[in-house]
Amino acid sequence: MPPYLLKETESVQNMALTKFIKALVAHYKNEPAIVLWQGENEPFVEWFGTCPNVDRSFVEKEVALVHALDTRGVMSTDSGELGWWYREGQLGDYFGTTLYQVVWNERFGYMHYYFFRPLIYRIKALVAFINPRHALIAELQAESWFPNGNKNITLAEQKLSMNTEQLLANVELARRTGFGAAYLWGSEYWYWLKGQGDDSMWKAVKSLIP
């Protein structure tokens, strides 16, 4: 949210957001690359960044507004590893989640989510009454996790959280969830690496394209 709106009332903020959504959909409505609209990003997550409480009824109004403006579906999202999906799962036409295997935490350093196997994601979808074919992996980890956003870490350290082997393993995990699609998160990173003389990730992604 723009800083100038932070001091405003919730009502004023919601009016501004509604105006923004209308302008956004109108601007991109004729873009053929858009297959779904994303309604908010993990709207009920309160443990990451600056996240005020979100009124579910307003999120429902946002989704209804997009439906009124365009015929394409709306996707709601939640964290794949730290969310339970039951609130977000029924908000949109599709549900999007994350799939991360290696992350960094200030307290524990690099953490491996290897215990999150495809079955866990399928069970979560079942419990939240989400049709797996209407579930997507909206963020499939395909880039390094930079501690504290530090962009100056070495390439060697970057490979601790992402490399070609990890990328291909993540893609295989995504396939085994049985979800309808997966979006790789990190295309700018592969391009940047290629410019640094390391085209391993770039080639790995190309190998996945039929």
TrEMBL record:
State the Gene3D superfamilies in the record.
Glycosidases
Q: SUPFAM superfamilies recorded for this chain?
A: (Trans)glycosidases
Determine the domain of life of the protein's source: Bacteria
* The name this protein goes by in its record: Glycoside hydrolase family 2 catalytic domain-containing protein
- Organism from which the protein derives: Candidatus Magasanikbacteria bacterium GW2011_GWC2_45_8
